[in-house]
Amino acid sequence: MMAQIAPRVGDVVGNTRLLLDAMQRAEAAHCDVVVCPELALTGYPPEDLLLRDAFMCEVEQAVAQVVANAGQTVVVFGHPRRCSEGHLYNSATLAACNRSIGCYDKKSLPNYGVFDEQRYFTPGEGVDVFIAHGWRIGIGICEDLWDDEVAEVAATQARDVLINLNASPFHVDKQFEREALMQKRAVRFGVPVIYVNQIGGQDEIVFDGGSHALDASGNLLARAPLFVAADVLVDIAASHGEIVPIGDAMSQIHQALVIGVRDYVLRNGSQQVVLGLSGGIDSALVAALACEALGAEHVLGVLMPSRYSSGHSISDAEALAVNLGMQTITLPIESPRAAVGGLLTDIFAAWGKSEADVTEENVQARIRGLLLMAISNKSGRMLLTTGNKSEMAVGYATLYGDMAGGFAPLKDVYKTQVFALARHINRHHELIPENSISKPPSAELRPDQQDSDSLPDYAVLDDILQLYIELGQDMDSIVQRGYDSALVERVVRMLYLAEYKRRQAPPGVKITQKAFGRDRRYPITHGFREYPAQREDENT
User: Fold this and answer.
1) Beta partners for 130?
2) Are residues 330 and 358 in contact, defined by beta-carbon separation less than 8 angstroms?
3) Is 142 a catalytic residue?
4) Is 421 in contact with 253 (CB distance < 8 Å)?
5) Residues 217, 347 share a domain
6) Residue 113 confidence (pLDDT)
7) Same domain? 184 vs 291
8) I need a surface site. Which of 11, 275, 285, 337 has the fewest CB within 10 A?
9) Which of 31, 36, 103, 142 is catalytic?
10) In which domain, by residue range, is 502 found?
11) Pairing mode of beta strands 199-202, 205-208
12) For the residues of 202-247, what is the DSSP string, one character each?
């Protein structure tokens, strides 16, 4: 049985209960083996919790408890392990009949993207084949099967089945990559392969499950659903199991965002959220995701019109709230905007800077942030921010204004994907008002303002950003695709200059391979620019 469970980082007691419950279900189903994910007892990634003696003592007690409760069904589960020499390993224990059969230590420790295992763990060197119920069970943990060298060494040892424990984070279409690799390994090893992954949100990471089994020829025998806790039974001898279909890219992103919001809010002790509703597509999408994740009764929208707000901003926000069944309140910001402006008028005049510019626009955004944070503080609701990856990439956001909050669901979602997700959510019936999707995006901080006044068309901007960020192409290569060189230079310059803002942004759901913060890490202060002209401009 593949036990696709949802461990919570640091909740050793709760995670132990998840394992024991899975073991009971496997016993009741008369399974030979039940497999749980990598580091199932601690959740993934436990990070510096691993450095606390009290934490590791609790883990060791939990390992002993699981072993003591093992019945006829062999349980394979992941946990950190300390050895007498002081080394720490990422390990998997096999147990049955109230005793340990053996322990495997992960050999290949990833140290890229969201992974930082070399900071904590020592590579294992022991055996990876264990005998249980007459089966020769080969064990690997996540990266061990992605590492060609480790996998080739393991392929030289005889076994009847290969089991791989995983804590594999989601990005779009990651499941196809996993299954392609597992197919390759099954054929190379000449034995069935069992791949077990966890589900759930952990800070910015989402685990999507997708546990699966293949026969010795690489044929798919079973697949668990994505983003759902599940027990999946597979009969290796009979080559039989259930294969759950994989949704398209928008379905995957949609599910990842919902589970990311749900688990971040609930696992941090909140149940209710608040967000600003502008009538635009970003806030509408965040509201729809929050209502799906937490229930509409737990979502509060705040309308904060100013002198620059259009009539449809209010009506679109109100229509959205009706469609979703969520509560709203309205707090006009003209009075506090005027008060702040009055305080600053004489100072700005003394500096010869009386003409309104982005300063006054940011004051409005920060007043809205202040009001939302006040509501969050007083009500105990977590504040969700509504900015997307396109805006965060080029700094089209206001520090301590629309960036203020506890969680940013769209932080890794490009604007063009926001539009596609809104259409996806509306595929059966309209939840997000059509006008919020079709009208030109605007921050509405000055008369007749549109995003296109400050930014390229989002289709163009997103393509340049994805080529540069996700694919790592240089500026010359992007220009060769037909983009104006001055535009590419401008976008890349904005990207680097906005790093200081992104460092102060709240966490958000990772859906790409190059999420800001977790995957893409650049210094705030640095002198590198691809084009000499950029360096000259900034040094003058």
Assistant:
1) 137
2) no
3) yes
4) yes
5) no
6) 83
7) no
8) 11
9) 142
10) 253-539
11) antiparallel
12) ETTEEEEB--EEE-TTS-EEEEPPBTS-EEE-EETTTTEE-BPPPP
- Residues 120 and 130: their CA atoms lie apart, in Å, by 26
Phi–psi pair at 519, nearest 5 degrees: -110, -45
**Cβ atoms 398, 408 nearer than 8 A:** no
Q: How many CB atoms lie within 10 A of CB 169?
A: 26
* Same domain assignment for residues 360 and 500: yes
pTM of the model: 0.93
Question: What is the structure's pLDDT at 154?
Answer: 85
Segment-wise mean pLDDT, segments of 10 residues, the chain, 540 residues: 97 98 97 97 96 96 98 97 92 97 95 90 91 92 92 88 96 94 93 96 96 95 96 86 91 97 96 95 97 98 84 87 96 93 91 89 93 97 97 94 95 97 95 89 64 82 96 93 94 94 94 89 84 50
Edge to edge, what strands does the sheet with 33-35 contain? 99-105, 88-96, 74-82, 33-35, 2-4, 230-232
Structural contact between residues 374 and 333, judged by C-beta atoms closer than 8 angstroms: no
Give residue 139's pLDDT: 95
Please tell me whether residues 285 and 207 are part of one structural domain. Answer: no
Euclidean distance between CA atoms 7 and 40, whole angstroms: 6
The DSSP code for 385 is: P
- pLDDT for 442 equals 66
DSSP one-letter code for 123: P
Q: Report how far residue 141's alpha carbon sits from residue 39's, in angstroms, rounded to the nearest whole number.
A: 10
Identify whether the C-beta of residue 188 lies closer than 8 Å to the C-beta of residue 219.
Answer: no
Euclidean distance between CA atoms 114 and 516, whole angstroms: 11
Q: Give which of 195, 295, 199 is closest to 256, Cα–Cα.
A: 199
Rg (CA), the chain: 26
Residue whose tokens read 């984070």: 169
Q: Which residue among 246, 264, 296 closes a domain?
A: 246
Catalytic member of 31, 58, 103, 106: 106
| 331-344: burial string, b at 16+ Cβ within 10 Å, e else | bebeebbeebeeee
Distances (CA, A) of 62 to 56, 78, 408: 10, 11, 34
Please indicate, yes or no, whether residues 224 and 267 belong to a single structural domain of this protein. no
Q: Which of 14, 447, 471, 453 is nearest to 462 (CA)?
A: 471
Please give the Cα distance from 387 to 374 (Å, whole number): 20
38 is catalytic: yes
- 74 within 8 A of 49, measured Cβ to Cβ: no
Residue 100, beta-bridge partner list: 95
Placement of tokens 């279900």 in the chain: 25
Rounded Cα distance between 32 and 106, Å, is 23
CATH of the domain at 420: 3.40.50.620
pLDDT of the residue at 539: 46
Q: Which of 36, 38, 174, 411 is catalytic?
A: 38
Task: Compute how many other C-beta atoms are within 10 angstroms of the C-beta atom of residue 78.
Answer: 29
Provide the residue type at 9 as one letter.
V
One-letter amino acid at 217 equals S
Residues 6+ apart with CB under 8 A from 506: 385, 403, 405, 406, 407, 408, 411
Shared domain check, 191 and 298: no
